[in-house]
Amino acid sequence: MVLSKLLAIYSLKYMHENKLSKWKAKMISFGGRWTLVKSVLGSVSLYYFSLFCAPVSVLNSLEKGGGSCEREESFKGCHWVKWSKVLNSFQNGGLNVGSLKDLNQGLLGKWWWRFHEQSDALWVKVIRSLFGREGSLSGGGVERRRGNSVWSYIVRVGREIDGLGVQFSTSIGKEVGNGEDTKFWEDVWLEGGCLKNKFGRLYQLEVNKRALIADRGTFIGDGWNWVWGWRRDPRGREVGELEELQSFIRGVHPSRGRADRLVWRLDPLNGFSVKALRGLVEEARGRRSGVGDHTTWLNAVSKKVCIFAWRSKLRRIPARVELAKKGIDLDSTLCPRCSCEEESVDHALVNCTKVKSLWSLIGRWWKLDIEACNSLEAIWELSSQWGCNGKGSQRWLTTSWCILYLIWSERNKLVFGQINNSLDDLFLGFQRRSFEWITKRDKELALDWKSWLTDPFGV
User: Pfam families, from UniProt (predicted)?
Assistant: First the structure.
């Protein structure tokens, strides 16, 4: 088993390195790199991760390869954003690439669901013969003498997920129908786990410890009456436990016309899925690490524009001030456009005098007062500040992202190619490019060029 696991690890690392070769990263944009990394990290390792609990060193090595592919090749390959942040979901302020550890735990967690769902399968019978009827999924875990088996890692993953604050080990249970397929003491059919753990004294007093719910009651008309089977009458603390048990199950009423079914209490409506479990693990891990704000992702613009807007919000684009912070030797940190102030991210995209003139034209075009805006956030918040409708607000955010990306592109042309277009040419170009991007990516939008020029909010 150890040898096969080592061979799988080395073959997995080879496949990742082959798929994420650096020459590919040099030939594609940020959006392309994001797609490549997300695809490779989320698919190549599926078979291995569904069977083995990958070592942390292997996970770090594989994710490091993805970070190298995503990394910018200019300026000696500077890392602009922590790779752990890139891996975070949109809800946790990342780019939704996904952590391999979370994927590994989600895939192994599926075996917990299969163990309960396929209770009559041969593999489940084998597991029960080795690890007990519950497969060590409830209780203290796997014995030390079996501690290095594949199943022991699967059991351990459930405990690790519990440790993040996701109550996974007790989330798989039964929804009671007629009670003919649910064990009263040993199955999880109420919040808080199985009853044998919660009411240990009564469980020891029970005659038939594997009794079904149907064995512990009878239908009286449309009602249900609980019937007990004790070796002797409860006494002492057992009486108190019995009263607590009766109170605990008072709200449960089996139904004749409905069969019992397996449910996942963390998502009762949709049921278990690896994607849902992985999302819960990512969210829990994000809460513990104190992640940033939610990442806004617009399908109306290309991925490279979305990623640029995300990096701009974090102030992680190669403006001259940011390059100087990284110790890169520059002739000057002054803005290449106005040569009056240092080029920070906000200055390059909003506050430069030449950029301000451009934003003034855009403000008149959109009938918004942009003169007072001195940061990226102020630009993006204009829609809500001026009470735009839902579609208009979304359209302004989409357009502002496109314009910011184009402003940065023009800045790079000036720095590297000595190209300096006139203000009117830039404004007309921004109108045209934003119109093309929005209309090509939203086929249902009925938008014509003349309406776009005169009233972009109302189209």
Answer: zf-RVT
Alpha helices in 118-236 (DSSP H): 122-131, 150-163, 195-198, 200-205
Buried-state track 8-42, b at ≥16 Cβ within 10 A, e below 16: bbeebeeebeebbeeeebeeeebbebbebbbebbe
Annotate 128-167 with b (16+ C-beta within 10 A) or e (fewer).
eeebeebbbbbeebbeeeeeeeebbbbbbbbebbeebebe
pLDDT value of position 351: 92
| Cα separation, 284 vs 320, whole angstroms | 37
- Amino acid 161: pLDDT: 92
Rounded to the nearest angstrom, the gap between the alpha carbon of residue 277 and the centroid of all alpha carbons in its chain is 10
Containing 396, the helix (H) or strand (E) segment is: helix 390-417
**What average pLDDT does the structure give for the chain?**
81
CA distance 431 to 423: 12
Total H helices, total E strands in the chain: 22, 4
pLDDT given for residue 324 in this prediction = 92
* CB 295, CB 310: distance < 8 Å: yes
CB 227 within 8 Å of CB 217: yes
| Cα end-to-end span (Å), the chain | 64
Residue 248 DSSP SS3: helix
Burial (CB count within 10 angstroms: exposed 0-12, middle 13-18, buried 19+), residue 332: exposed
- The residue-averaged pLDDT of 353-358 equals 90
The one-letter code for the residue type at 256 is: R
**Residue 444: helix, strand or coil by DSSP?**
coil
Burial zone of 350 (CB within 10 Å; 0-12 exposed, 13-18 middle, 19+ buried): buried
Residue with tokens 């918040």: 381
Which is nearest to 99 in space by CA: 273, 271, 280, 266?
280
pLDDT-based confidence at residue 72 (cuts at 50, 70, 90): very low
Residue 454 has pLDDT above 90, yes or no: no
Phi and psi at residue 327, in whole multiples of 5°?
A: 80, 15
Report in angstroms the alpha-carbon separations of 163 from 91, 168, 199. 21, 9, 24
For the CA atoms of the chain, what is the radius of gyration? Answer: 30
Q: Using CA of residue 253, residue 254, residue 257, residue 259, what is the dihedral sign?
A: positive
d(CA 437, CA 399): 9
List the beta strands (DSSP E) in 181-332. 217-220, 223-226, 261-264
Spatial separation of the C-alpha atoms in residues 212 and 216, rounded to whole Å: 7
Q: Which residues, in sequence order, are CB contacts of 139 under 8 Å at separation 6+?
A: 197
Residues pairing with 334 in the sheet: 342
